[in-house]
Amino acid sequence: MYNVNKLIDYHILKSNKAYFNLSQDELINISVAKGEGDLAKNGALSINTGKYTGRSPKDRFIVDEPLVHDYINWNNTNQPTSSYKFERLFDKAINYINDKEIFIFEGYVGSDSNYRMPIRVVNEFAYQNLFAQQMFIKPKEEERGSIKPEFTVIALPNLMSNPKVDGTNSEAFVIISFEKKIVLIGGTKYSGEIKKSIFTIMNYLLPFKDVLPMHCSANVGENNDVALFFGLSGTGKTTLSADENRRLIGDDEHGWTDNGIFNFEGGCYAKCINLSHKKEPQIFNAIKRGAILENVVIDKDTKEPDYDNDKYTENTRAAFPVEHIEEAILEGEGGIPNTIIFLTADATGVLPPISKLTKEQAMYHFMSGYTSKLAGTERGIVEPKATFSSCFGEPFMLLKPQVYAKILGEKIEKYNTNVFLVNTGWTGGSYGEGNRMKLEYTRAMVKAALIGELDNIKYIKDPIFNLSIPTECKNVPKDILDPSSTWGNTEEYFQKARELAKAFIQNFEKFSTVSDDIRNVNPKIFSKAI
Ligand SMILES: Nc1ncnc2c1ncn2[C@@H]1O[C@H](COP(=O)(O)OP(=O)(O)O)[C@@H](O)[C@H]1O
Ligand SMILES: C=C(OP(=O)(O)O)C(=O)O
Ligand SMILES: [Mn+2]
């Protein structure tokens, strides 16, 4: 095996066309001068990513190497490729950048100094290098130059693979090699691939150090009470963690140690479709100089962003450092979580907008990860598509879901953490018939849960899923709390609920070794009450 850092040092770093840790302004100026992007009226750098406007999971591969072979949960999401194929693409990449200007960011992922990992990101686009700088953790002045990267991401969107020769699925590829400690990205300009591949690496490494890596956002209240919001893409992690009454810790990726939680990142990556100052003031205000807007339509003359326009994609994005969010916790750390919220965007409109989970239910729903893939978040998804995404982040979890679930279960038990399931998806009918839950109501329910207003009130049990539904919640109409009463036709509701219940049961069959108390959470399709 060759020494990757030496190889990269030789090929890339010795090049007089490599720019290291340029400042925000230098990268913005270069990006504009090169015609990569344009400045919007609010000061953000606006760019378009072309064909790929969301993640492309079918193009993501893990090199099947002895170091990781026995640990990776190989499946349709964690697809293997060979060292041979990786090395060929790597050589292609090295040849490709030989005569190009490249931009290099060196910094960290992980704000807890005990677990942080030094990384290097090599980009052909200045705007993507700015993305890396804003999303990861910038080195302090005195650390610059002395960073010894453990992993290197090489992102070359204009380098296309040839599926027939390279064994890829399309021209795009995201390939992670744990032995070479390299992530190779080509064919796609969607910047989310850069941050999510580093996240995926952390998710593989941290359980070996007894740290639970989580696909969740986090914030903290006045009494230092920490809340986590787990959820697949588009379910509301970023939106709901930006809360004027609480301080943001991070919007997407955290680790949980014996001391508390820590953000992996130093920035946020917010969706901006239909963004308004009224509904999401903190995110709206964060989009200023230093932020990068991806695939947002900008008026040609006034340069005003049109957040309501989905001409390029529904998955429009803004990337910015956490410093842009008012009152954010810049050190990225918080105490032991008091409340956990599982976000599900249920496109069937069956699950209640909020329900309280027992410990067993929490484990069951964490392993099941029922939600929908939302339009634009993955290549090929144009409308909500029901999915079971274990740990609410299956595309990023390389180990078996049971590994993560076991650590989470131990922590919930030990700290007696409250867990709620929140449906930010549909109500009053399935997608197409009903409506998406109003953000205003979800915010009110989350608030009530976090300040303890749902602790000592009356709950009812839904007959199929056995979920505990509060009978009242401040600022939320009573009649939306029980989903069966929001559908025009109750029989249709129960019909759909039984279908969903069957899907839950079927999905859970894959967990063959799970204990009976968790398996018994399975919904009861033939409940007498229906
Ligand atoms: N009830 C709701 N709860 C949360 N988000 C909602 C709701 N209704 C609509 N949305 C919209 O859904 C999107 C959620 O996306 P985001 O917060 O970026 O999710 P994530 O960070 O989990 O990927 C935002 O555009 C938000 O405005
Ligand atoms: C960047 C992403 O994360 P999220 O949508 O969870 O914010 C993504 O899934 O591409
Ligand atoms: Mn997000």
TrEMBL record:
Primary subcellular site in the record, as a coarse category: cytoplasm
Q: Which reaction does it catalyse?
A: oxaloacetate + ATP = phosphoenolpyruvate + ADP + CO2
What does the note accompanying the cofactor annotation read? Answer: Binds 1 Mn(2+) ion per subunit.
- Annotated residues that bind ATP are located at K196, H215, G231, L232, S233, G234, T235, G236, K237, T238, T239, E280, R317, T442
Which keywords does this chain's UniProt record carry?
A: ATP-binding, Cytoplasm, Decarboxylase, Gluconeogenesis, Lyase, Manganese, Metal-binding, Nucleotide-binding
UniProt pathway: Carbohydrate biosynthesis; gluconeogenesis
- The residues listed in the UniProt record as binding substrate, with positions renumbered to this chain, are R55, Y190, K196, R317
Binding-site positions, Mn(2+): K196, H215, D252
Can you list the GO cellular component terms from the UniProt entry?
cytosol
Its transmembrane ranges are none
Q: What is its EC number?
A: 4.1.1.49
Q: Which Gene3D superfamilies match?
A: 3.90.228.20, Phosphoenolpyruvate Carboxykinase, domain 1, Phosphoenolpyruvate Carboxykinase, domain 2
Which protein family is it in? Answer: Belongs to the phosphoenolpyruvate carboxykinase (ATP) family.
Q: What does this protein do?
A: Involved in the gluconeogenesis. Catalyzes the conversion of oxaloacetate (OAA) to phosphoenolpyruvate (PEP) through direct phosphoryl transfer between the nucleoside triphosphate and OAA.
Please give the name of this protein.
Answer: Phosphoenolpyruvate carboxykinase (ATP)
From the broadest rank down, the organism's phylogenetic lineage runs: Bacteria, Bacillati, Bacillota, Tissierellia, Tissierellales
